[in-house]
Each structure stands twice: as structure tokens, then as C-alpha cells.
Amino acid sequence: MSDEVTARTLWNGDYYNEGSGKDGLFDKLKEECGVFGVYRHPDAASLSYYGLHALQHRGEESAGMCVSSGPDFNYHRGMGLVKEVFDKDMMATLVGDIAIGHVRYSTSGDSKLTNAQPLVFKYRDGNLAVATNGNIVNAPQIRRELEQSGSIFQTTSDTEVVAHLIARSPKGLVDAAKDALNRIVGGFAFLIMTNDKLLVASDPHGLRPLTMGKLGDAYLFASETCALETIGAELIRDIEPGELLVLDENGLLEERFANHNREHRKALCAMEYIYFARPDSDMNGANLHAARKRMGSRMAVESFVDADVVTGVPDSSISAAIGYAEQTGIPYELGMIKNKYTGRTFIQPSQELREQGVKMKLSAVRRVVEGKRVVMIDDSIVRGTTSRRIVNMLRDAGATEVHVRITSPPFKNPCFYGIDTPDRRELIASSKSIEEICREINADSLSFLSPEGLITAVGGDNETDYKGGLCMACFDNDYPTNIDFDGEEKFGCGC
Ligand code: SF4
Q1: pTM of the predicted model, to two decimals?
Q2: Which of 142, 228, 270, 311 sits a CA distance of 20 to 30 A from 488?
Q3: Nearest-angstrom CA–CA distance, 309 and 306
Q4: pLDDT tens for residues 382-415?
């Protein structure tokens, strides 16, 4: 579709995220949490610090770490980035050789220190610390039952529900953890620590990523392999869906709490491949940068458009833009620059300054796009507002045509497994056709990657795994778990 009249009519002068606050104009999806664990390393706290730092993109609101020295737990949690929460003096107090750590993003209103993780408890057998990434769909129901039978909760976090289930069980830790993990439904990666044990678990579908590495004799666990790479650890393998690893004085015990079967199909979050995870991470043996390049390349095959330059919305879409450019022969150019220093700003531009074009987060490179037909690659369209601002920004910098190519299928349904998504009514693709969205975001043409193209690009195999082992529910409404408990849908993040 090429409709310059529409372009002029819809142009409203808004730019991409001028700085109206975290939840204002910025409508990208938010990753919820990252976890990092160490078993038996004398520098457990330092390794966790660097590991969490590498996982910072998964959550910027709070960070925390709990270290066991054997008899004691030493822990600290705070609001802010890892480098803000932990200073040298604080790190010196975190003595011990087993550790779990956490970075968290939370939905607004829920952003408070009491919910920062790891959560730490005293129970009958000593100390217990829990850190998780994900969301438990039936947590409200279990919480109500526990409260009715006398439990008192300190936080609004789902993680505490699991701690209560473990603490109230008459069984030993491992059996109590298995019972608790079988009771909960959702997408989760758990690290559970006692004074002398570390338990590591992934939900029965493997919705949230979790990986294992080794450094010397020490075992390490992280949401993404980039954290292992950062500290020089060797990657061993991804944690399997339904697996429960137990690390204690007997070494590593590889147990399961749920079997991989038809009911529990493998379903790793497709958005990890598309957008969330760092491009230098590997998932299921595939490097994310390479997978995103293949998405771009496949996109070019599925919906080629003649143009002068290809550019990607930084940072997550640069790899896909390179793939699109390689496949088509259209040159890849740096058409947009992201300002990396806008994390926390208190001074926002006034309306007047905005009208003058003050852009805090993203700028178009005028010399690259001026007078050019531009293919703009992005990873997803949520409400449509961000896409419209970026298209308008490119047009204002002189692009003569802007063709938008999205390296995921249309995002139509909310996530119940730990990704903060708006209500279905706010998701533009749930109610509008591709042509309507194209007009809404002011593009000359718009295409989305097909589900088959996505599965192929990430190396998934439809023959061996349903949907290539991916969760794609936000595209196709086919959720791997039951999501409606007591008529109550619970989406977003429960960490
Ligand atoms: S619903 Fe979408 S965002 Fe949520 S786990 Fe599935 S693929 Fe990921």
C-alpha cells in the first residue's frame, strides 16, 4: 500500500518515546525477570554480581542476592540497577559459596522493595530463599486457600506462594518442592536455596529459559547463556521442561517433577527468540543473533519490497535487518540511533520542546534516510503507538517511503507466563486487520513474519515437537496450559 495522502493526514508530530515515562508512550513489551545461581564457588557473590549485570536487560527495577555461608544467609535487595544496589562495602558482607540472585521488572504499582527477590524465609529446617522468573497462573487461588488455612503473606509475589507450599509440607525439601511445583501452573524458572542445598526447576513446558554452566567444580545457573559467558563459565546445557535439579553434598542429582508428554508439550517462549534475550545468548543450541538474522532473511523471502536502504529498530531488530539486507541485496544502514543513557530521567521535555523535535530515546539518521525508500525492521507491534512514532520520525527525517516488516506474527493475545502485556483490547492486532494497522502506523506497506517462518528461523522442528517446541500463544491463542482458574485470568508477571 502506498498512500501519501494518508501519510500526511495521519502525521501528528509525535515522536518515538520522547520521554513521557516508562509506561507512557513506550509500548514495547517488558521482560519480567532474570535469575542467576551459584553452587559451591568461594566467590559466589561476585559471580552473581557479574551474572546479574549481564541479565540486566531482563529487569531494571530491583536486584537482589542471597548467599549461604553454611550456618548463615547473607542477603541484600534494593531498588535500581545491579550496579546501584550493590557497592563494594555491601559485596564484602555477602560471604558464602552458594548464591541465588535476581533482577526484576515489575508492573507499575507493584514496584516495591518487599517484592524484590530473592525472598528469604525461616522455616522449620533452617533458612529458605527463592528466586523466580515467570508467572504462576493459579497463584491467586492457591494463595486464597493458604490464607484461609492460616498462612500470612508478606508480599504480593507469586514466589511466596511456592515458599509457603514448601514450608507447610510435612515432607523433606525435595519431595515438598516436587509437590509444590506440581501444584502450580504457569511459566517459571525457579532457584530455591537452603543453607546447604540448591534446587533448580523449570516449568513442565520450559516456557522461561534457564541454562546450566560450570566454572571449575562450581555449578552455575542463569536465565541466559550470556551471563555464563560473561564470567567465563562453560555452557553445559539448558534445563529441560519439568526438570528439578538438586545440588547438595552428594553432587548433582537430576530429577524430574513432571514428564514431557502430550499434556506437557515443550513450549519455550517465542518472544525470547524474537525480542527479549540478548543476541549473544544461545537457546536450544541456537545463537539468538543468528536466529534473528534468519528471521530477517525469511521475512525478505515472504514479503520483499523494493527499497534503497534497510534499517532495524535498535537494538533488538538490528540482527534481523542485517538478515533482510543480505537476502535482498538492499544495503543495511544505521538509520536510527538509540540513546543509551535515558534509563532514569527526571526532566522530560516540555510539549514545546517536543514540538521542536527533542527526542530522548531514538533518533533517525537524517543523512542515511533522507530521500530514500526505507525498509524498517522491527520485532513486534503491541499497541501500534511506538511503530507510528518511529515511522513518523523516519518520514520527518526525509524518508520518501517507509515499509515496515515485523519479524513476528501479529501479537493478538496477552501473555500469562511472565511477560507484561496490555489487555487484549489494547493490542492493535487483536481488533484490526494488517491493512488497518498499516494505515494506523502511517506506513507505506506492512508485513508480519508467518508462524512457519518463525519456527524455521529458530531451528524448531514441527516433526519432533508441536509448533517446533515454541509457545506462540500471543500470536495464535493456543496456550500450553490452562489459564482460567475460578473464572479468573491472571496475566503479566507474578514474580
Ligand atoms: S504467550 Fe507469547 S510472550 Fe508469553 S510465553 Fe508465550 S510466546 Fe512468550
Answers
A1: 0.90
A2: 270
A3: 9
A4: 999 889 989 999 999 999 999 999 999 999 999 9
